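Human: I would love a firmer grasp of how sequence relates to backbone shape in proteins. Take your time, and here it is.
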Amino acid sequence: MLTEEIDARSVESEQALLTYVTVSFPNVRRVHEAWETARAFARSSFVQRRTLPVILVLHVPARAGSDRDVHCHLLISPRQLDGIGLRGFERSFCHDEGQAIIHAEWLAHVWGWEA
């Protein structure tokens, strides 16, 4: 399992094991639209650009009777993953300034704004 491999290959000098990002879809009309938007963002910004593994978890609170927005959690490992395994470490968002980086990339993805 990916998460077990990330734990097993942790780097002592690099403490971050996971970056947790939530993107919300307050006006989504179809659940698959939220899923595809979040998936495309994860693939473009993290998998292709940085070769990072990402796990997506989509929540549809209305299915449990809640009025909260549809949202997707992106669980991003800072360990780069290639055809050989986990190698390298992406530091760009493993600190407080990383939130601004991810937010800018999200806006660029959703609205076509310059990141």
Remarks:
- Residues 61 and 67 are 7 Å apart (CA to CA).
- The mean pLDDT is 87.
- The chain has one domain: 2-111.
- The helical segments are 2-8, 31-50, 98-111.
